Amino acid sequence: MSLQNFMNKAMSVWMSSEGPDSDIVLSSRIRLARNIEQYKFPTLATNEETQEILAFFEETFANKTFNNIGQLELLKMNNLQQIQKRVLVEKHLISPTLADNAAFGGCLLSENEEISIMLNEEDHIRIQCLFPGFQLEEALNMTSKLDDWIEEEVDYAFDEQRGYLTSCPTNVGTGLRASVMMHLPTLVLTQKINRIIPAINQLGLVVRGIYGEGSQAIGNLFQISNQITLGKSENDIVEDLISVVQQLITLERSTREDLYNISKDQLEDRVYRSFGTLAYSRIIESDEAAKCLSDVRLGIDLGIIKDISRNILNELMILTQPGFLQQYYGGPLRPDERDIRRAALIRERLSLEMERKKRMEDDES
């Protein structure tokens, strides 16, 4: 399969589309944790109980159309190969917990992959909407509609004082996790991020890596999300996060401008060296690839590198992960083989971008 055809089938909307403030914010996500009243939480439930829940959702919601997003397809974890599950994790459509531990776990997935409903993970139901750019309010609106749609068929575990009941006490209340994925290269480069993260934590928010809790901030990508779910409404939680993200956007943009004005030659040299590494390397490890992709994305945003889509960072950050590499090349790869294939895939993707640029120039002439 050609890379272009593979990308057309493999890329989620949030990876290949631009949204508001997409120079800084790659994606916005809302997730709601819910449990069914008459069943024990998945952490205590028997295989028979979780299998019964999965069968109920298959009968009630699979292949049903919601709003204008088309049908929801049910993916059963025990029917998927390990590489397929890893790809879903890399695309942020399921959690590592669901991929690794759920004997009778599943995921209801919309065709455009904006909507993902995990079943029998830490909670019976985890509803997720994932939008490109800075669209938290839009994602909350869609998630709330999905929540109402499911509740027409399900009795949620709910307490008048505590709110929605969840397996983990930190999710009790609204059960809501709102998060944005941000590219903050100059805040890292100037070390301002070291002062910002503690300040954000004091506001009841948390800063994590690209794959959430326990993951590293590779490629200067950070997830900013709420920690508090109890005592605030869903709208208040989202509004608080929006306020902090807007400040981070302003600070990252001003830092980029200041850095470019003060150290133009050094910054351009860094960007072009990284571009050369990506364009010509024959072997590249994931950490080095992530660093270079971040530099190139910064160069695109600053106008140093022209006529290359900034979505290339979104795409290549995912395409060069182990699951995607092995799916594209058709089977398991050793770490050293992945480093070789990663370099080849990046060169191929940049070549496609150059071809796109040339076609555009030919059409204009």
Set down the secondary structure blueprint.
Blueprint: H1 3-10, H2 13-16, E1 25-34, H3 47-60, E2 72-76, H4 82-90, H5 96-101, E3 106-110, E4 115-119, E5 125-132, H6 136-151, E6 158-159, E7 163-164, E8 176-183, H7 185-189, H8 193-202, E9 205-208, E10 221-226, H9 234-262, H10 264-280, H11 286-301, H12 311-319, H13 322-329, H14 335-364
Antiparallel strand pairs: 1-5, 1-8, 2-3, 3-4, 4-5, 6-7, 8-10, 9-10
Keywords: Allosteric enzyme, ATP-binding, Kinase, Nucleotide-binding, Transferase
Organism: Metabacillus rhizolycopersici
Catalytic activity: L-arginyl-[protein] + ATP = N(omega)-phospho-L-arginyl-[protein] + ADP + H(+)
Structural notes for this entry:
Belongs to the ATP:guanido phosphotransferase family. Helices cover 50% and strands 15% of the residues. It is an alpha+beta fold and 365 residues long. The strands form 2 sheets. An 8-stranded antiparallel sheet has the order 2-3-4-5-1-8-10-9. Helix 10 crosses helix 11.
Summary tags:
365 residues; alpha+beta; eight-stranded antiparallel β-sheet; two-stranded antiparallel ribbon; globular; ATP-guanido_PTrfase_cat; ATP-guanido_PTrfase; ATP-binding; protein arginine kinase activity
In total, the number of strands is 10
Q: What's the rounded overall pLDDT mean?
A: 89
The shape is globular
Beta-strand percentage range: 15-25%
Please mark out the parts with pLDDT under 50 across 5 or more consecutive residues, or reply none: none
Q: Biggest sheet, in brief?
A: 8 strands, antiparallel
The percentage helix is 40-55%
Succession of helices and strands: HHEHEHHEEEHEEEHHEEHHHHHH
Number of helices: 14
Measured distance between first and last alpha carbons: 32 Å
Radius of gyration based on Cα positions: 21 Å
User: Order of strands across the biggest sheet?
Assistant: 2-3-4-5-1-8-10-9
**Structural class by SSE content:** alpha+beta
Family: Belongs to the ATP:guanido phosphotransferase family.
GO molecular function, one term: protein arginine kinase activity
Protein name: Protein-arginine kinase
Binding site for ATP: 27-31, 92, 126, 177-181, 208-213
